[in-house]
């Protein structure tokens, strides 16, 4: 059921991944107090049009925008609009692109101006959890080795891992098998093989892991109102180890 990708397909996924990375860098440069989330969405739409890429979120199950912008206690799927970003907030930005029929998917949580030390610690730990998950994305490991590494990292720091949303396989579809929970015991699930491509995406909460969806039917928030962070990369499993398709460092699939 898990679709393995050829080297030629990985080169196409690399192109999609780099479009997503550049879009996130564009957003990073523009996140500051006074900017609206809708402005960030517009910038990405214009950039993808210039690059010949298609934003994969727009119209997905009726989703109305090209990126997700989730502020503070919003976990994922926040809809960009008139909301103005303020100093001290954090904003999770999730972007997907299709290039030549293949998807890339990545997310970063950005500080808006100067943020509290505790908010910064949440960002640092969630980023670190993603790195530790990626390090387990190796031939011969089991899928849940990724899950377990992420959970261990987040919980050791006193944070909690969202249960209701998970990472996923990716390729010709944005969401392919397998699902990748960000929690669980190691050594379970399918063995990882070269050619698998996974979107690994820890969502980490400062308080309880419980979440709910707002009346707009999209925005997911923490039930206790505590902060949440989200980092995601699209990662290919190769004989040489994990190849991060949504970061600028060479992967061998350029
Ligand atoms: N990028 C999200 C994911 O990682 C999907 C966004 S849902 C959408 O699965 F509706 F906004 F597209
Ligand atoms: Co994803």
How would you describe this protein?
By secondary structure, this protein is of the alpha+beta class. It has a single domain (7-244), classed as Creatinase/methionine aminopeptidase superfamily (Creatine Amidinohydrolase, Alpha-Beta Complex). The chain is 28% helix and 26% strand. The protein contains 4 helices and 15 strands. It has helices spanning 7-30, 37-51, 117-135, 143-156, and strands at residues 54-55, 67-71, 74-76, 90-99, 102-111, 160-161, 167-169, 176-180, 197-200, 203-205, 211-213, 220-222, 228-230, 233-238, 241-244. The strands form 4 sheets. A 5-stranded antiparallel beta sheet has the order 8-7-9-14-15. Strands 1, 2, 4 and 5 form a 4-stranded antiparallel beta sheet that branches. β7 and β8 form a beta hairpin. α1 runs antiparallel to α2 and α3 runs antiparallel to α4 (143-156). The longest helix has 24 residues, at 7-30. The model has no long low-confidence stretch (mean pLDDT 98). Residues 57, 60-61, 63, 68, 77, 94, 96, 105, 168, 199, 201, 232 line the site of 2-amino-4-trifluoromethylsulfanyl-butyric acid.
């Amino acid at each position: 059921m898990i679709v393995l990708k050829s080297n030629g397909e990985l080169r196409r996924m690399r192109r999609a991944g780099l479009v997503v990375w550049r879009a996130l860098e564009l957003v990073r440069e523009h996140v500051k107090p006074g900017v609206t989330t809708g402005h960030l969405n517009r910038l990405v739409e214009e950039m993808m049009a210039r690059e010949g890429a298609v934003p994969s979120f727009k119209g997905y199950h009726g989703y109305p925008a090209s990126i997700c912008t989730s502020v503070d206690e919003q976990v994922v799927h926040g809809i960009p609009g008139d909301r103005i970003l303020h100093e001290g907030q954090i904003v999770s930005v999730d972007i997907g692109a299709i290039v030549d029929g293949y998807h890339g998917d990545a997310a970063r949580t950005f500080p808006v101006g100067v943020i509290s030390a505790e908010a910064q610690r949440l960002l640092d730990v969630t980023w670190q959890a993603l790195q530790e998950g990626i390090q387990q994305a190796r031939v011969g490991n089991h899928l849940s080795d990724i899950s377990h590494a992420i959970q261990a990292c987040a919980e050791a720091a006193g944070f909690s891992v969202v249960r209701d949303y998970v990472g996923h396989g990716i390729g010709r579809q944005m969401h392919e098998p397998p699902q990748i929970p960000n929690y669980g015991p190691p050594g379970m699930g399918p063995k990882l093989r070269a050619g698998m491509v996974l979107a690994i995406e820890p969502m980490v909460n400062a308080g309880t892991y419980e979440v709910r969806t707002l009346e707009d039917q999209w925005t997911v928030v923490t039930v206790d109102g505590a902060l949440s962070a989200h980092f995601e990369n699209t990662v290919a499993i190769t004989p040489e180890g994990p190849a991060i398709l949504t970061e600028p460092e060479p992967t061998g699939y350029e």
